[in-house]
Amino acid sequence: MIDHLGFKVSDFDRSLAFYTSVLAPLGYGLVMEVTPEMTGTDARHAGFGRENKPDFWIGSGGDATRNGLHVALAAPDRASVDAFYQAAIAAGARDNGPPGIRAHYHPSYYGAFVIDPDGHNIEAVSHRPE
């Protein structure tokens, strides 16, 4: 059910070095970095994982609405991502990124983001190409 999770850190470079070191014994390594140029924001992100699949993320920057936990839920297809987003907005969530392709992660990454009532960034994502 959980595709990946992430959280903000106060010192990105320090945390990048820390998690690179402490996750290695668990078989996790740095799989991907997302730069400010890739997202059009001032935030940096690093995704750790196994077998080229990042599922543990740290990030810097963002505003107060993005400083909570980030949890991404695996969706079976794009229609489910759309339905998640519509249901969340109807239930009172705030938009944090409507359904769409996020090619800076990979060409088939289709996700939608909402801020829940407690300020957490909740995402539904499908990795399927259709």
From TrEMBL:
PANTHER family: GLYOXALASE FAMILY PROTEIN (AFU_ORTHOLOGUE AFUA_5G14830) (PTHR35006:SF2). This is Catechol 2,3-dioxygenase-like lactoylglutathione lyase family enzyme. Signal peptide: none annotated. The lineage of its organism: Bacteria, Pseudomonadati, Pseudomonadota, Gammaproteobacteria, Lysobacterales. Residues 1-127 form the VOC domain. GO terms for molecular function: dioxygenase activity; lyase activity. Keywords: Dioxygenase, Lyase, Oxidoreductase. Pfam families: Glyoxalase. InterPro entries: Glyas_Bleomycin-R_OHBP_Dase (IPR029068), Glyas_Fos-R_dOase_dom (IPR004360), VOC_core (IPR037523).
